[in-house]
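Support reply, case 0932

Customer input (verbatim):
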Amino acid sequence: MRFKETRYRLVNVADGHEFEDKGWTLGDPEARTPSLIRAVYENKQFTPRDTEDGIYRYADWMPIKRTLRKSCAPVTYKSKGLARHLGLENLYITFSGWNPKIGAKMRTCSFKETEAYSVLARMDASDKRTLVVQSAGNTARAFAQVCSDNRIPVVICVPADNLHDLWFRRPLHRCVKLVCAPHGCDYYDAITLGEKLATDPRFVLEGGAKNVARRDGMGTTVLSCVEQMGRIPDAYFQAVGSGTGAIAAWENACRLAADGRFGENKMRVYVAQNEPFTLMYDAWKAGSRTLPDLDPAEGRRQAEIILAKVLSNRKPPYSLAGGLYDTLKASGGDFYLASNNDIMYWLLQFRNLEGYDLLPAACVAVTALAKAVADGTVKKDEYIMLNCTGGGTLAAFSRGFVFKEPDLVLSPDLPAEEIVRQVNSLF
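Our regenerated output:
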């Protein structure tokens, strides 16, 4: 059966201006203030497509033109071990990773696959431009794998210090090119590389949080949970680097409330960072929409210290309309911190309680939940969604793996023309 393209329009979160998607629109061309845009879907009811495989069962709320091979949807189940340990009656874990026993088969072990399968399916198959993706690690691994499987040309920009995250079960197709910022650089330096590369019209930026397909792909975690829970959660927990996943969760909770069959949207969004990288936490606790100044050298130092290195975005979508600040305000949520020691504790405890391992970022989310239980923020009978954004690497590694070596190492300080010249030489 031929895939039915999803019908939708775009809306400016700040002022409600509605307009058509020109194909890869990342912002309102008439915007007067910085704002995210959202997809407004023709189908207002949550209607999973049982005719589609993997994540594409949620295609009615994904801004896509096609489907791609080998996708997997997030898996939600009612917790027993962790719930008992924390004294919670209605804890639901949404897991995105590798654990075939519960039906989770994301081969890169990260919920960043939800982004990749949505963003790449938004691209028209006839588009000849090469996609540019900037990442601290997990996003790079997901886009590399999905592009390799589906023969989609991509240039992925990452910091060299995060190359340990670029592992795969087998070598990638040559359509995937990896460009690194040198050792000592961080995620923001990888962003700079990508932005300079995209000054050439032969390349197009993926867009990060501004890309509605990225957010609505990530938002499938909430759709998975509500399918199992039968209602909108009372509380939602996730670790954040940019906050995009938490924004996406809130957006889909709003859509579900508008549907009318899943209750009112009273879902409180709780997020957490890995200290000492606490940029958004510091702003939120100060009651500020504006992020504090962070010296680049200090930001790189903090990113080097934390175990959950993917949570180290120096330029997150926190302040703009529809960003994380607005999400926390609208939901009545809050921010927590997790230390490296907290991560190590929950790496061991979660495996004992639930039977599989988590990535460090997901352990930051578990830490936040445990702290919220301890301080009375959540009640034992509330319906809680814990978004465990990655795990299963022990099982994945047991089957063998290879690392993707960089095709180029380039300084983000190079002129854009030189970066374009060297990257073009790869094709």
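We compared this against your earlier run and they match. Two observations from our side: The mean pLDDT is 95. Residues 244-259 form the longest helix (16 residues). Please reopen the case if you see a mismatch on your end.
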